[in-house]
Write the structure tokens for this entry.
Amino acid sequence: MKVLVADDDADLRDLIAFTLTQAGYLVIKAGDGPTALKRFEDESPDLIVLDINMPGLSGFQVCEAIRRRSRVPVMMLTVRGEEEDLVRALGLGADDYLNKPFSPRTLLARIKALLLDQSALRGVGNIYADESLWRAKIHPMRIAAKLSPNESRKLRKALREILHEAIALRGSSISDFLDVEGRPGEYQRRHRAYGREAKPCYRCKAPIRRAIVAGRSSYFCPKCQLAPESAKRAAKRRKRVTPRHRAAS
Ligand SMILES: [Zn+2]
């Protein structure tokens, strides 16, 4: 497994690289944004650990550029308490985050969890996106479509709430709570959509469905989260040709 570590703090970069190398990962390092992107292109890493504040291009910009062409798991290094950074990072498609400072044990556990998650589900959709979409009652296929201002507002609000809850649950107990499988935090107990295929929706009892959206698994309630306009139009057309309607015309 190849991991790209991008951080402009040489000491932290070396510490992360040392920890990962000891654990058997092949590590590639970058000290600024443009180098991180170049290494990503040249080396095709299996996972990227990305600092936010870097010269040249920020971690946000690097994450955004990577997401345009790849679903490689991205772990953002964030500063505790900077929740706006988290909201932005996860909004740009980062899969997980780690608050600085962190212990080597936590880093390894979280990276392992992320890689397991990805390999098990072949590019899993990120938990926060699925949970936020469920809360905002927005179908996952709609991400690519144009959301109304009201829907965008609802989604932003849901994402913010979800992140605050997730952060609170991982909180300070994170390094104590991690089990040998590296399960991070307690937030997974609160999932309403993610990982709940065929289980009843907490709102309407309809079975949660799993679909592949943009190459990743996405969990949603087919009843609460209405499909995009195109699907709705198709549904309407189907309705129009039901026997009852045909008899009337
Ligand atoms: Zn539902």
